[in-house]
Specification:
95 residues
Length: 95
């Protein structure tokens, strides 16, 4: 994580010495200490995620909670959806 600097003071515990550390704004801590800072708002830049996103196998649910498959299934039914039309309220005429 070279080039990442803190923009807020952060308190962490050193895993090797069990000392409380105060990381100040502007510091760029070593990677083993930087990994302890879990709040992304404490950093001036977001973490660079060099890893590729995990592929989703066909037939598995979307882990992000999207419903991409439901629209496709509706289109296979001849293009006509099974949506219920909103009910109409009739006004009674009062004289």
């Amino acid at each position: 994580m070279p080039g990442r600097r803190l923009i807020a003071a952060v308190y962490v515990k050193d895993p090797a010495t069990h000392e409380d550390l105060i990381l100040l704004p502007g510091e760029s801590p070593p990677p083993e200490i930087a990994a302890l800072v879990t709040n992304p708002d404490a950093w001036d830049t977001p973490p660079s995620d060099d890893s590729e996103p995990e592929p989703i196998a066909i037939g598995e649910p979307d882990p992000t909670g999207g419903t991409a498959g439901s629209g496709q299934e509706q289109g296979d039914a001849g293009g006509e959806g099974t949506k219920k039309s909103p009910s109409r309220r009739t006004r009674s005429s009062s004289a």
